[in-house]
Amino acid sequence: MRTHFPGRRGNSRWRRLVVHLRLAVGADAGPLRRPVDRSRSRALLAAWLAVVVAAAGAGAAALFMYWSAQADAARAAARLHRVPAVVRSEPQQADLSASGAPAGGYRALATWTYPAGHTVTEQAAVPSSAGPGSQVRVWVDDAGRAAGGPRSTSDIVATTGFVVLGGWAAVALTCAVGYSVRRSRLQRRAEEEWQTDWAVVEPTWTGRAGGRNGSDA
């Protein structure tokens, strides 16, 4: 029964990486190393480097997008107000395009007073359990009109992560496809070179050099 040690597998990956790195920079110039081997290692390292750089760029982009979205949310929240209101109708499932209600939320006719002395009656986002006459709190803007609530941190994180990870995945997939194409071309070149070399070596190797068929007769 063969026992596998996790550390050995990790070390093997590092050893292969070192081998490819030495080949790529020309430090491993043994008699069995061919130019095509060096090109293959360079293609592999270039693909991995592009993925790592893309990951670093995605991290920086994520931070920038998060801070920017947080700043926008803070500016928007400064113009929003949570005020008491009285529900006037039965809540209805909100249209996704309706302002003031999140996806899957409910809206109903409600009445509130904001700014002071200014009474407004219009559709606003309310809990699904709020019936006519219920006291709720709704989000309004500086003019007293119904508005959507400020973006939450979880929403900002989810949106940022989706956009950034999607972009990084696209870059990684492009690198993988590019490396696969390059490797296929290098493999064909290696086979062509091998056939060329074998055409030179094969007569001597099989004893057919100089027109002989392997016997002295």
List keywords for this structure.
alpha+beta, rod-shaped, 217 residues, 54% helix, 2 domains, single chain, 3 helices
Tell me what you see in this structure:
This protein has 217 residues and is an alpha+beta fold. It has helices at residues 6-25, 35-77, 153-206; strands at 81-87, 92-93, 106-113, 119-126, 135-140. Helix content is 54%, strand content 14%. Strands 1, 2, 3, 4 and 5 form a 5-stranded antiparallel sheet that branches. 12% of the residues are buried. The model is unreliable at 211-217 (pLDDT under 50).
Task: Produce the secondary structure layout.
Elements: H1 6-25, H2 35-77, E1 81-87, E2 92-93, E3 106-113, E4 119-126, E5 135-140, H3 153-206
Antiparallel strand pairs: 1-3, 1-5, 2-3, 3-4
Helix pairs in contact: 1-2, 2-3
Transmembrane segments: 43-67, 156-179
Keywords: Membrane, Transmembrane, Transmembrane helix
InterPro entries: MT1774/Rv1733c-like
